[in-house]
Design brief:
40% helix; Nucleotidyltransferase, domain 5; homodimer; alpha/beta; 3 domains; five-stranded mixed sheet; 15 strands; 420 residues
Chain lengths: 420, 420
Amino acid sequence: MTGVWHCQAVTDTRTAGAVRQGSLRELNLAVVLRRIATADPPPSRAGIAADTGLTRATVSAVVDDLITGGLVAEAAPAPRAGAGRPARGLRLAADGPAGLGLEINVDYLAACVVDLAGTVRHHEVRRADLRPVSPADALARLAELAGRAHTAAVREGLTLAGATLAVPGLVDARGLVRLAPNLGWRDVDVPALLTGHPLPTEPVDDVPPLVVENEANLAALGELHARPDGPRSFLHVSGEIGIGAGIVLDGALFRGARGWSGELGHVTVDPAGPTCRCGARGCLETYAGQEAVLAAAGLAGADLPADTAARRLADLAAAGDPATLDALRAAGTALGVAVAGVVNLLDLDTVVLGGGYATLAPWLRPPVVAELADRVLTAAWSPVTVRAAALGPASAAVGGAGAVVRRIIARPSGWLAHAG
Amino acid sequence: MTGVWHCQAVTDTRTAGAVRQGSLRELNLAVVLRRIATADPPPSRAGIAADTGLTRATVSAVVDDLITGGLVAEAAPAPRAGAGRPARGLRLAADGPAGLGLEINVDYLAACVVDLAGTVRHHEVRRADLRPVSPADALARLAELAGRAHTAAVREGLTLAGATLAVPGLVDARGLVRLAPNLGWRDVDVPALLTGHPLPTEPVDDVPPLVVENEANLAALGELHARPDGPRSFLHVSGEIGIGAGIVLDGALFRGARGWSGELGHVTVDPAGPTCRCGARGCLETYAGQEAVLAAAGLAGADLPADTAARRLADLAAAGDPATLDALRAAGTALGVAVAGVVNLLDLDTVVLGGGYATLAPWLRPPVVAELADRVLTAAWSPVTVRAAALGPASAAVGGAGAVVRRIIARPSGWLAHAG
């Protein structure tokens, strides 16, 4: 039950600068561990040496450190055709450090634990309408879920090395939630409110005990996590009560100057359109946000949790309800207009429909694809793939937990100092 | 007059992987040269050692190599307060390798030479309506400008180490112009057409003799070049006959999967708006492209070069012509709607109005600023700066030439092998 409340951005890549002798060990640890994390099948020491250009002796010493520190384990030997003792493959440890992913959304709380190899080892989602609840009470409830996640992690021999909290709003670098419009939060100091409920993470160098991050950004990381062999650059659209997007470029989240990128819900679809909750006119949310779609489907005022609403709409659409089909077609068209703008700007070739949109993808996808074909200047040369997200709702907690373990893989020396 | 026709993308960053002994010299050369390129005032050998963590002996050996190879020169000694011989500062050489920047646009050709220190040493812009001219003839005329640039470079003791050609269209990785709508080009194989007119560049390792790149992307690099102390991330909008944008993130061009990012002119402003040349409806170009603005100002059919059109509109606006003022206000509003979408998505805090928009910035800026204030979700916490570009038209040729020298600074070993 340690954990100083200290926040920092998810992506802080170290730039190399000059290479000094002192950092060479750190660099080699990271290079070897990354090779083990990405190679398939599990690589041998000799294979790692061949791939990285390091000497066999260096690789062996580095691998010994990683095994002693609990980051790497030897896999069962693979059958080999040739003579001699088969080389033993190396894989990420299943009982070393793990990441804790937490989420506060409009209508649920979630906590999950992801181990170093990326496996989800614990996942709890608890429904609750959090709009009438004060931020302090919401965080107190979340701390209970975190406690249960900790118990589960300990039972499995895992150590929680850091936590990421997803919030559906604008979060600054210190973890202050500037604005979460659909939750009704403004200037909520999450770290200060959590001082009475310390999270169950161990202090590990290079891994902040808590990062607070935008939910749509983490949901995009969840998609990356769930499809390790999928595209490395894509737009992930989270359709919940609000609409957010996460932009993943070359396997990393693009956060923008302050981490406030991806506000797709407030991209203008029609400058003279309906007034949005944000004060502007014609934002995408006024056409394709949950409230607008429910109203267009004849369910105005139905105050449903996001996944319940998506399932209800999907059931009606599957039954051929004309109003629902029209509502989803209109929402998909507006979404397509906004997403076409993103593709024209960023030259991405994959769009992932996440959150409630994952459930509604069979109906949203055709109008989105049609708008992209009409509006993307390069559509003739390279069609854009539009598909449903692998995880759907609650992907943000998985993405947040995965971000913690990716930090350890990127810089194992901090964990080794802790384990040693 | 050498130069094999070989094209490749402007940004191909080498990722480090493991550090091998053989590449250590290359890395140290690059680290020291970058320090000399960015330090102000010119740093001494001792200062570089302190900043980079390299030993004095290593820095001295590396600096000797850079001076011998013609990349670095000793600056006049700076006055020093203390006792002893003043340390001599090091700066980039003014007579080493240089970059050749070329541009084919709708109504002009341009060539310029930029030296290693970033100074423009030669710049020629030749007006010509290139729409009725075949691509082969346009490239033949461009080769004449390149020849004069070569003569000027030789006279100044410079060696052209590579060329970048800006084209207002979609360019693929092999230098094929897929589509340049305002020039009327489709599937034009620029390298093949240039085989009869070899460019006057020397073959240098790590520097492709020719890169063909989108004009708006290079114009953004031109802005980066012209304001070395300006922001490192911004959106640069080129308002010419068409509208393109270059996205600069942390000092580097964001090109997208195929280099086709930044098609701001085809972002939808109103899905039911006028039909665009691209076939879609309500694209930004139909509101804020040169033709639309001239028509709204009562100058329909005036087939003017982009910078002439911008000056004509600016003169009319300065004289208080109501139709022109209305036309610019409407264009600025549409531009503001589209740019607000970009800021919502990418969380950028600087927007640069370039090309003809630089001339028209006094009239375009207020409506753009107003739309950003209304439509950017985070506007309350961090206002977006909107300003005119430093270079305006023809910035692409400077950006392209600068890209060549930046390549050499990033990897000096290729040039040193050539010079040695």
